[in-house]
Amino acid sequence: MTVSLTRVALAATAACVLAGSASAQTMTRKDITMEAAVTIATVAIADCKAKGWAVSATVVGRNGEVLVQLRGDGTGPHTMENSWKKAFTSRTFRIASGEMEDRLKKNPAMGAQYLTGFTTGRGALPIKIGDEVVAAAGVSGAPGGEKDEACVQTGIDKVKDQLK
Q1: What phi, psi does 79 have (nearest 5°)?
Q2: 121: domain CATH number?
Q3: 135, 91 in Cβ contact below 8 A?
Q4: Residue 114, pLDDT above cutoff 70
Q5: Is residue 110 part of a domain?
Q6: Domain assignment of residue 14, yes or no
Q7: Residue 9 belongs to a domain
Q8: Residue 22 resides in a domain
Q9: Among candidates 148, 141, 152, which has minimal Cα distance to 59?
Q10: Which residues contact 106 (CB under 8 A, 6 or more apart)?
Q11: Between β-strands 124-129 and 66-71, what pairing exists: parallel, antiparallel or unpaired?
């Protein structure tokens, strides 16, 4: 009986020590604001529109979740999904979405190609605060992914002073 009580007491003490240590740990991180995400999407759409291209834009956050998704006037229904896939791919791999095409060519058996939300389409860029990728933005609808990507860059450039 004494051995059992001793074991229970030791287990309780260990649990308290571990719980105390775990609760003292915190994380500090920077994230993109909703205002910055809206600005990136609207500026990207406006830039493409000024060039004669109807596009949709998506900005995803740190975990690939949609922060902002806007359909430009006169766009096809596929542009919403495609802009999200581009942004999601860019965020999760921390690279421009179009770089996935090169990776897939080098490794045709790459498992990532089977993931939901994956695309090799060019048109999305990661959004960084310092060296950390905290979000990504994607555009779809221009006649070529390099044009989509240029509009995204214009949107990101608009808020670059906020990404420090």
Answers
A1: -65, -30
A2: 3.30.450.150
A3: yes
A4: yes
A5: yes
A6: no
A7: no
A8: no
A9: 152
A10: none
A11: unpaired
Q: Please enumerate, as own/partner, the contacts of 28-33 that have beta carbons within 8 Å and a separation of 24 or more.
A: 29/62, 29/132, 29/134, 30/129, 30/130, 30/132, 30/134, 31/61, 31/62, 31/129, 31/134, 31/135, 32/59, 32/61, 32/67, 32/127, 32/129, 32/134, 32/135, 32/163, 33/162
107 contacts: CB under 8 Å, gap ≥ 6: none
- Domain limits for position 111: 34-162
φ and ψ of 119, to 5 deg: -150, 155
Question: Half-sphere exposure of residue 52, counting CA atoms within 13 Å on the CB side?
Answer: 2
> Domain count of the chain?
1
Please check whether residue 156 is in contact with residue 43, taking contact to mean a CB–CB distance below 8 angstroms: no
The reported pTM is 0.83
pLDDT band at 15 (very low <50, low <70, confident <90, very high): low
The tokens of 72 are what?
Answer: 């430009």
Which residues are bridge partners to 132 per DSSP?
A: 129
- Residue range 127-132: mean pLDDT, rounded: 94
